[in-house]
Amino acid sequence: MVFFSITADIILFSILTAVVVNIFYKLLVKQQDAKASRERIKELNAKMKEQQKSQNKTEVDVLFKEVMKEQGKIMRMSFKPMIISMIITLVSVPWIGAVYGEKIIELTDGKGEVLFNGGSIAVEGNSVSFEGKTCEMPCRLEERKNVFDAAVAGDAVKVSPVAALLPFQAPFVGNELRWLGWYLLSFFFVMMTTRKLMKIYL
Predict the structure, then answer these.
(1) Taking a C-beta distance cutoff of 8 angstroms, is the pair 201, 74 a contact?
(2) Cα gap 32→27, rounded to integer Å
(3) SS3 of 127, please?
(4) Separation CA 67–CA 74 (nearest Å)
């Protein structure tokens, strides 16, 4: 079920999941300890660069061990919230994909239909139609908030919704994103933004 549009819905779900994940990071990790470890690592790395310039291998090794020790602290602190975030991801991502991802229309005597965003996509022969618009496959059908590609796939028809049209050309994907690409882009942007706002140092 699409509430507003695929683009808007996925942004909302990415906000929801990112905020929930960050809440667990905030509650399960002592942020002052995490901040102290981050600052200590930064300080040690700066000292290591100085010692490397002086070619003081013994001191570099000592500093490197200290860095690894602090990194170990951070890994231990992040273990519990990381497990919880993985569980949230394993539950939410397949569900989002099922709602906003590809649709397969099984055909009977060359006809088939699937519900989509409050309407239905109908196939008859080589034609696909949605909300009064029709095209001959393979084709792209655009109707207000909905854009999807339709193509014959064996004895069925595959419908691939476009989740977002970007105002620029992104590497590898161009200016179009399907549900997973749009979710990941939205999720990581919201994740980083809310972490800064919530003062999370992991």
Answers:
(1) no
(2) 12
(3) strand
(4) 11
pLDDT in tens, 59-102: 989 999 999 999 999 999 999 999 999 999 999 999 999 989 99
Q: What sign has the CA pseudo-torsion 57, 58, 62, 63?
A: negative
Segment (H or E) for 134: strand 133-136
50: amino acid identity, one letter? E
Classify the phi-psi angles of 117: left when phi > 0, otherwise alpha if psi is within -120 to 50, otherwise beta. Answer: left
Question: pTM for the full model?
Answer: 0.83
Give all strands of the β-sheet with 103-106 in edge-to-edge order: 103-106, 156-161, 146-153, 139-143
Residue-range domain boundaries for the chain = 6-100+178-198, 103-161
Expressed in angstroms, the distance from the first to the final Cα of the chain is 35
Tokens for 105, please give them. 């229309």
